[in-house]
Amino acid sequence: MQHVAHLDETAIEVANLSHIYAGAQGTVPALEEISMRVGSGRFTVIVGPSGCGKTSLLMMLAGLRAQSQGTILCHGRPISDPDPKRVGVIFQEASLYPWLSALDNIEFPLSLRGARERETRQQRRARAEAMLRLVGLEGFGERFPYELSGGMKQRVSIARGLVQDPPVLLMDEPFAALDEQTRMTMGHELLRIWSTMLKTVVFITHSLTEAVYLADEVLVMSARPGRIIDRIAVNLPRPRTYEMMATDVFGQLRDRIWQQIRKTP
Question: Taking the CA atoms of the chain, what radius of gyration do you get in angstroms?
């Protein structure tokens, strides 16, 4: 399915965001004057050197951490606390409950709110099963985390992030712990899911190849304090194919990102 982004709508808008951490040894500036806009339905990837504040920025977009200054709007409203109806978050570690099956792990966020929203167990289970099918794990719903591969665990984690149907999905290096082959497969599967559900995605990675392969736009951050030093439009056609990685255009985009990262102090 060809993805069609709603370019006239803004899903995330960040203005003049800065953050300073206070510690025993004094203050540490982490982020500096970050402004960015993510269009609804777009796939935006953030890259930058280690320690530049990428994860801190993502946590602020999720309402899990407060910024020192600046504003963050999600679909026109501030987000100062976690709001799973607007924003889903998927972390590097799958963090599944080992005593719950794959299907129960997916359903768990729904069970937390089911009573107050009068959603029946049957309705919750149907939604969880739909997400299990979407991530390609039909038939594995009764398996426990120890019975699943790393890639399968991350599929369960993605399904759990999607089950509440948030319009925005934030992903913090979700495939970093996977081997290269599984990582490429998971990236391709993520694009399939994204094209089906038309979510707005903000994705953090250290892999420049992964960044170009997934993104509509790549935001490059400087070393700490993190600033956005480049915005790179990735105009490769969709759906993406592995063969694109061997093209000159793909290589030029990847090299541009690398040149920006390597010149940061």
Answer: 19
C-alpha 18/C-alpha 69 separation (Å) is 5
Q: Which of 181, 154, 203 is nearest to 48 (CA)?
A: 203
Residue-wise pLDDT tens digits, 117-171: 677 889 999 999 999 999 999 999 999 999 999 999 999 999 999 999 999 999 9
Instruction: Express each pLDDT in 56-88 by its tens digit.
Output: 999 999 999 999 999 999 999 999 899 988 999
C-alpha pair distances (Å), 17 with each of 54, 144, 230: 13, 41, 16
Distance, first Cα to last Cα, the chain: 42
Whole-angstrom Cα distance, residue 151 to residue 177?
9
Q: How far apart are CA 68 and CA 73, in angstroms?
A: 15
pTM of the model: 0.92
| Separation of alpha carbons 103 and 159, rounded Å | 9
| pLDDT tens-digit series, residues 98-111 | 999 999 999 999 98
Q: Work out whether strand 43-47 and strand 69-74 pair parallel, antiparallel, or are unpaired.
A: unpaired
The domains of the chain are located at 98-165
CA dihedral over 133, 139, 144, 150, signed as positive or negative? negative
**Cα–Cα distance, 48 to 32 (Å, whole number):** 14
Distance of CA 264 to the CA centre of its chain: 24
Q: Tokens at residue 135, please? A: 């991530």
**């996977």: which residue's tokens?**
178
CB 264 within 8 A of CB 49: yes
Q: Which two tokens stand for residue 258?
A: 């690398």
